[in-house]
Amino acid sequence: MLPYSFQDAFVLFLPKKLAMRSTFPLILIFLAVIGNLTAQNFSETEKQILIAGDTTTMFRVLINTNDLDTGVLGTVSRDIDPNDPLLPLLSRRMYLSMRDTANPGVGIAAPQVGINRNVLWIQRFDKSGSPFEFLINPRVLKASLLSRKGGEGCLSVPDERGELMRSYAILIKYQSFDGEWNTEMLEDFSAVIFQHEYDHLQGILFPDRMRMQQNELALPLPEGVQLFIRPTLN
Fold this sequence. Notes:
Number of strands: 9
CATH superfamily: Peptide deformylase
Order of helices and strands: EEHHHHEEEEEEEHH
């Protein structure tokens, strides 16, 4: 989960080769089909977690200083059937955990509440009103090599912050509760939030990502280069 107090240094980098990573379309189609075939309902153990205690309250957020929690946080998550009857309950309780008044965040992933399933909440600062959206079985289709560097923290990693590079723009697809697939481009802070939460689904915490990036080559943009966002193009 990204805490609400996220502060960003907003430094852009451009590695040597391309301006956009891409995956072959046929491979994407294959992965989507496989994902649909492998999506399953919640297990009995997961059901017990979902209905435990007062189901109108938030979940406890797992932390990396708890040995039992780290096993869940470090596990790669699986797809979930969007029609599972308990999925709306997971969504509601995750939202409450994310918006805990004691420490509100702008995103959360299911592993952070003890469920290794591919669902997450993110706040969409790229949309009017900055709504929160629940994404089911998300996929990253493309990610720009143009990156931004900024500070991140996480409620699952208490009392620790660090600087990471995240792709400035990403093309994603995800399912809604009706099972329909949606494709969208995320940019800037919304893209950062998604990538942070998506890492959770891969069993990766932000300190892990920082270590992965230690030896990565990243080139700053040439001095004097100016970047602008054009909301509309004729």
